Amino acid sequence: MNWLEYRRAPGLxxxxxxxLAEARSLVGDYAELAVLDARRAAIRLxxxxxxxxxxxxxxxxxxxxxxxxxxxxxxxxxxxxxSALAIAAVLNLVGAAALGWWMLALIKELPFTALLRQLRGRxxxxxx
Length: 128
Hints:
Layout: H1 12-76, H2 81-108, H3 113-120
Helix pairs in contact: 1-2
């Protein structure tokens, strides 16, 4: 056997070096996957927000049309302009108050309360 043909088995240092290189490559692949997944989620969120904005505009237009139709019906029944518009304003105020009441219920529970409770080691609260 010629000394040029002789090939020794990899040593412990080379095996550990190869293992670290593979681990670094694996972590890099997972990081790339996480970045691509986050990008995809951000794009979908943007599309969802845009669709929600369009739907909100359509709902507002529908609400305004219903209020206008109510005013026209009241005028057809002989109501004055002032009373018809006052009733429409009260309907809008009632709708705004209902939304405000709902928003107050949402504000009472702060974001990440379950995570913070878990990190602090507290028991879950009973539902209200």
